[in-house]
Design goal:
20% strand
Length: 205
Amino acid sequence: NQPQQEKYVNFFIALHNFFRYLSKFWWLAVISSLICSVLAFAYTTRTFSPVYRSEATFMVTTTNYEELDGSDYTFSYDSGSAEQLSLTFPHIISSEIFRDALKKELDTDSINGTISADVIPKSNVITMHVTSSDPYDAQKVLEAAIKICPDVARFVIGETKFTFIDKPTLPIKSHNTPAYTKNVFMGCAGGALIIILPLIILSIF
């Protein structure tokens, strides 16, 4: 039991020493926390890159039948088409064929934006998004993507027609926000540890 008692005694001595040192040097921990918090805030502000997101929601209807003269199409919606649409549409917009067609439509070699789409389950309603570092590019890429979609999708799901619920808009505010709270808190905690850890080591030894 003697070694165990010595461990307890050493622990309480170290704990007593830590609080004794902390009572003397707490102000260093406070100053260090404040400095690191300010640095974290400045770093977050300096490195923040706004991302803008333009989106549009539309219904997709597919060809039901062709008139006798072969010139007119009647578009309709059914559950089978909706299921096929939900499975294939995300793959269509991520395909090389789609990206090549989009570059041609935009007359550019690179696309300043990331395209994604959400299909409401068991429906023909799609919301397409484009995120970009430039709000005008986000809207322009989205409008071009929607324009070429029927031609590219025709090879997979047949003739389609898009009916807008919400048209593409120019994003005014950035879609992301700076993580000020998280980074300042981490800076504050890190600044305190810079002082507290040496006090712990000093208390033990």
